[in-house]
Write a structure and sequence with these properties.
The structure is a homodimer.
Chain A lengths: L3 H14 L7 E7 L3 H13 L3 E7 L3 H8 L2 H5 L3 H9 L2 E6 L12 H20 L3 E5 L3 H6 L4 H11 L7 H20 L3 E6 L2 E6 L6 E3 L4 E2 L3 E4 L7 E6 L3 E3 L2 E3 L2 E6 L2 E6 L4 H8 L8 E7 L11 H4 L5 E7 L14 E7 L5 E4 L2 E5 L2 E2 L13
Helix pairs in contact in A: 1-2
Chain lengths: ~375, ~375
């Protein structure tokens, strides 16, 4: 039985996100658990004359890799895979975890080594600009979210605006108001974030705010930049727990001096946190300040792709910054951690209140009430 | 629950068939239905230090391709995929059909066009010499064979000698006697095949007989060559029905004059047969004469990979011959069709009886009785 939302999602990804057209080679990377969506995307790519290059992985394959790989396997990306990425014009990636905690017992050093190895792939993908990451609802994700699969599907597809008649139109429309917000923030030097156990100032002077509206992530809804590398001063509490790299990390607290993390703790997953911060030189500096604008997401679900878009949250990623923001921080790490500002939070740009208690001031980006929940 | 036979099969494929070793890039191509085996092979490749390059496909993807593809999709192999094959050192392919008749309604011309497009891939794989094709038991294959899945698994794994303590040792041992047979046949000029509705003479003068013992197919057990292209004279009845290219073809009768098929009919699938014969210039000529030597396969199951190995059968493929045999016939088609000689068949090499009623004369390659069935 066809799910019309999958057909719609396939069209959004192919026609809107990467604007695939005749002759484009498109790497269609994904987990086999996303079979129904991947097949829809495959069909749509063929329909528009693009050339799909499937790159599928089984659940459990990473566990096998970490169990069996030799040093040489961490040294370089298989050239045959690197070559395929180099030749491609665009990328669609579909995650579909069957177990969000499958890697909880893996040595973080191994995960970082693989991350370092794969950095050139990330750079190829991002450098080609036409790429999008999405996620297919699975039982594991539903479980992580305390929902049934049917509830979680509804949650996921609502966040992607697939219940709209014209999802791409919805994202295009949303992009306009986000653009106004991005332009306002670009005029600012200092951003000040106040919230529960959080008081952080950082500079974004001269940096570009990117308007995230479904061309790289689905769901989307954020504006983000790379802050001035040595500017962060203060402390932050990331109250939104996360299942990251196959394990849970929650209750993270960081303190920054001259941009650098000088104190760090986590209520759960502290070993992984500390190990990530020590992965390389750049991992203790911020690579991203992002502001979520998606009020179609009712609550956090320990899932970065969704939680960082949640209207009324901000995220501050440690590690690599995106070149297009003007950010210059280099790292094999890029880990978005999320602070909820919906209860007692304030966001200022050069002293002007931009957001209070998770609601924007002067920008019509929706709210919990408006989203009709 | 681990199936020890899958671990054994993975070792046979990795260690024996392609002799993978440190640093080898190995394309691991397969259907997602073969997940348990593919994961075992992936693990074993990592263990020996080889670099697996998975190339997985979903069931139903070919149907989508034939439904949606434009002309341009039939024109060239996606360069990103071709590049990966060019870079690889060896290839392991695992088929796992979920429906052996899924393509019954597809225009054969489309299948041939895709076959022509993919010919360079085949040539790369064969040219690199280290490649093996196997099959994972599925419900669809069991159904095609009138068996339960458990029965079919037993059937498959027995054919691969996985019930032996040392399957690779078994194949190495078998190779010795097959070598004697191959050398005897290489001395011959004329092969004469007599059987039900079958009386065919062809020349193999100066051609090489390849000893098929698990390095390219698993299961294996055959010796084969490429006959002299214009030598086939007579007629043949392929009594073994086959599910080929997603449809059934059975009861094929061919008549040859000066090597060329001049009359052809099929009880089922005649349209596909005729279309294949007209695919190109070389499709009406024989590309292979093969003699099955696997008496661990008790009966035919409409499955070429197994049936062509069946002890007591011969196969005569229309289309492309393998270069290593000395054969020179070119075609995008290579279709092995199988004649059962176990009831009233005779096989002669320059007038000397080599096989009668499916039992070899003077070669100890096992028989139905010896196989312990």
């Amino acid at each position: 039985m066809k799910d019309v939302r999958l057909e719609k999602l396939a069209r959004v990804l192919v026609d809107y996100s990467i604007e695939a057209s005749e002759g484009d080679q498109v790497v269609l990377a994904g987990a086999t658990g996303a079979e129904p969506l991947i097949k829809e995307v495959y069909a749509r790519l063929l329909e528009v004359g693009a050339i799909p290059v499937p790159q599928l992985t089984f659940p459990g394959m990473q566990e096998i890799f970490f169990d069996k790989a030799h040093d040489l396997h961490y040294e370089e990306i298989p050239p045959a895979i690197l070559g395929a990425y180099e030749q491609a014009d665009a990328f669609i990636t579909v995650s579909a975890p069957q177990n969000t905690r499958a890697l909880a017992g893996v040595d973080p050093a191994k995960q970082q080594a693989l991350g370092r190895r794969n950095q050139p792939l990330q750079e190829i993908v991002i450098g080609k600009e036409r790429w999008v990451l999405t996620q297919y609802p699975t039982e594991a994700l539903a479980q992580e979210s305390d929902m049934s699969l049917a509830e979680y599907e509804e949650f996921s597809f609502s966040a992607m605006a697939l219940n709209q008649d014209d999802p791409a139109g919805f994202w295009r429309e949303k992009a306009k108001e986000q653009q106004r917000l991005a332009e306002r923030l670009e005029q600012a030097d200092e951003i000040h974030i106040l919230g529960p156990e959080t008081d952080l100032k950082l500079s974004v002077k001269g940096r570009t705010f990117i308007n995230g509206c479904g061309t790289h992530n689905m769901p989307c809804g954020e504006v983000f930049t790379g802050p001035i590398e040595d500017s962060a001063e203060g402390y932050v509490y990331y109250g939104v727990p996360t299942a990251v790299a196959g394990r849970e990390v929650s209750g993270v607290r960081l303190r920054f001096e001259r941009g650098k993390v000088v104190e760090a703790s986590a209520e759960k997953g502290e070993e992984y946190l500390l190990s990530s911060l020590d992965a390389d030189e750049g991992a203790r500096f911020l690579g991203e300040l992002g502001i979520g604008t998606n009020y179609g997401i009712p609550r956090a679900t320990k899932n970065i792709l969704f939680d960082e878009k949640l209207g009324g949250t901000v995220h501050l990623a440690i590690g690599k910054s995106y070149e297009m923001t003007g950010g210059t921080n280099e790292s094999s790490v890029h880990w978005d951690m999320i602070t909820d500002l919906r209860e007692g939070g304030e966001l200022y740009a050069d002293g002007e209140l931009i957001q209070k208690d998770g609601e924007f001031v002067g920008f019509d980006l929706g709210s919990a009430a408006k989203a009709g929940r």
